[in-house]
Automatic annotation (TrEMBL):
Residue intervals passing through the bilayer: 20-40, 79-101, 130-150, 162-181, 193-211, 232-250, 282-298, 304-321, 341-361
The keyword Nuclease appears for this protein: no
InterPro entries reported in the protein's UniProt record: Cat_transpt
Protein name: Potassium transporter TrkH
Amino acid sequence: MTKLIKKLGERLSFLQPYQVIILGFLFYVAIGTMLISLPFAQKHYVNTVDNLFNVVSAISTTGLTTGALSEMYTPFGKLILLGLIQLGAIGYMTITSFFILSSGQKLSSYRTKILSAEFTLPQEFNIKQFIRNIIIYTFTVELIGTLLLAYQFHSLGLSKCLWSGLFHAVSAFSTAGFSIYNNGLENFRDHLGINMIIAILCYAGSIGFIIPMDIYRKVTGQSKEITLTTKVILMITAIVAIFGTIFYLVSGETHLLSAFFQVMSASTTAGFNTVPVGNLKSGALLILIIAMVIGASPSGTGGGIKTTSISVLYGIVASVMRGQTQNITFMKRNIPYSRIFTAVAASATYITLLMTSIYLLTLTESFSFLELSFETASALGTVGLSMGITSSLSAWGKLILTLTMFLGRVGPLTLGIAFFKSESKVIPCKSDLAT
């Protein structure tokens, strides 16, 4: 198998790394759509647009669906979606590279370039060690999450507890937000155990694979201190969680646990809901939109602009206000101009795509501007929260959101680089802040 993977890599060596990433995801979307369109994968006929939508939602770890999965697909169909969720979370290049490393072979320089393009890492990180640790970390966390959730579901007297625990653990860690229950997690709104297990799994995936590896390096003495990237991610994540929950409550929603959970779900781009999102007040919806746009962290399973890019933007604003236009700083550390350019470009393309998608939906759909804005922010951020309009969208509306979800997963800036970058080399930036 590793020889086949290597041969395939040699045949694609004329492509730029970002082009390989995009083509890889398109390939799995095509395969997933064909598999889930098989008669024995469906409980009843599901049209091609809906199948494509749900497959892209899975591979992009979004969680938006055109209907209740339990009513649309058989166990085989749901297993296909679960596999796509896992694949989308850790990346197909990561899995194939792990097989190569496990067989004792070395990664080619071309494959290393692709991985460096897919994962933006601090300069002192070794990409090969990083790949191994991603796989170990992912399956360890998901196994623990599966057992804990299965126990909680069993204590409530639910059937198929192990399957439910596995599905929701993978979905949570992958920040996909898919649920096999028709109303999501609304039945568990007041269950502290399930809420906290899901939240921990979502944060474990969304903060990125950099942090656990960084902590491991610190504990084992491989590094003297944790990187700036880890500090920034933890700080921004905590700020969004705390202040997001406070503002959510101020907007008129009074249930503390559900307030925390919904802000967590939006900021990690998980997309689980314990309350009917369509019934929330405008203030709470605005907080969730902001959290979805900020998003998760680099080299993790979530989407959005990313916490590190937000920190760079804040550093620019704060430095300009202090009159320090020559040296942009954050947490008393200088930010290299290459990181500044990347963060600004990524944020600008993200907002441009968000506005474009909203505009296109206003041409094809009759829902309110708030509903369309929320749905689009959720799709582009690969979140999966919805005000309940997804299944009622027109075919054109579903196709627009399908493309939006795909671009949210690969990154609009990645798409631009893939088509317009004149050189095939990926030159890593020498910085301890990943963006």
